[in-house]
Amino acid sequence: MNGRAGAMPEANLPGFRRRFLITPAQFAVTAALEDDIHRMVVTLHHDGESVTRVEAEMARHPWDLCPGAVAKVEADFAGRPLAPSARDIDKKANCTHLFDLAELALRHAGDAAPTPYEMLVSDPADGRVTAVLRRNGQERLRWHLQDDQMLEPHPAKGLPLIGLRPWIASLSDEARHEARMLQWASLAAHGRQMPWEPDTPFRALPGSCFASQLGRHENCQRIGERIDFSKPGARLPLAD
């Protein structure tokens, strides 16, 4: 974490953009997400101690079976104490993005003001990628990768992007939370390199999320709009 504020040097580079906005209120907290292929929101209603009711919505999603995950996250998080971890819930049995939103809402339920998180993951240039996370407009993390292996920060050098769990687990609570967020964004950014035409055969990794579980994976179809927020003149995620 370096606390730098101001415009990111990579702001004009083509690449993946993701934004979360968590908005607390009295006895409720809402977490919203938008990126190239997702736009979702989760609201947790609570009594100050535990979640009393969950509402989730999906405006954009990549698979036709994704909306079925709304009932799953609503059931899994209802009744939970207001604590920043839900690791006893099977994330992959849920829509992983709705799950992340619900966890974020739990983490920020007691806040007094909204919290925005912004992530930028540049498209690979000769295999080189820069990934940045900002919270409340201040830079918190900056990673450099080569061919999906970490170059910086130094303690993670040489680790594959998909294999960061031991290093992330060694971090303090807030740093661990933000590193997970940037890892998720960096993995999701791979979607920019995948074919998007509906008739192109492509499926999510079996068992990796709600829509790709056994019995669904074989039948799910790719749908939905993909937005390149890095194009000149494009709006910011969640800006509308």
Topology at a glance:
Elements: E1 15-25, E2 28-35, E3 39-46, E4 51-60, H1 69-77, H2 96-107, E5 115-122, E6 128-135, E7 138-146, E8 149-152, H3 165-169, H4 173-188
Antiparallel strand pairs: 1-2, 1-5, 2-3, 3-4, 5-6, 6-7, 7-8
What does this molecule look like?
The chain has a domain at 123-190. Helix content is 18%, strand content 28%. It has helices at residues 69-77, 96-107, 165-169, 173-188; strands spanning 15-25, 28-35, 39-46, 51-60, 115-122, 128-135, 138-146, 149-152. Strand 7 (138-146) and strand 8 (149-152) form a beta hairpin. It is globular and about 50 Å long.
Keywords for this entry:
single chain, 240 residues, alpha+beta, 8-stranded antiparallel β-sheet, 4 helices, 8 strands, 18% helix, 28% strand
Q: Compute the number of helices.
A: 4
The strand count comes to 8
Query: Measured on Cα atoms, how large is the radius of gyration?
Result: 18 Å
Silhouette: globular
Uncertain segments are none
- Helices and strands: which structural class? alpha+beta
Terminal-residue CA separation: 29 Å
Give me the strand/helix succession: EEEEHHEEEEHH
Mean pLDDT across all residues, rounded? 89
Q: TL;DR?
A:
This protein is of the alpha+beta class.
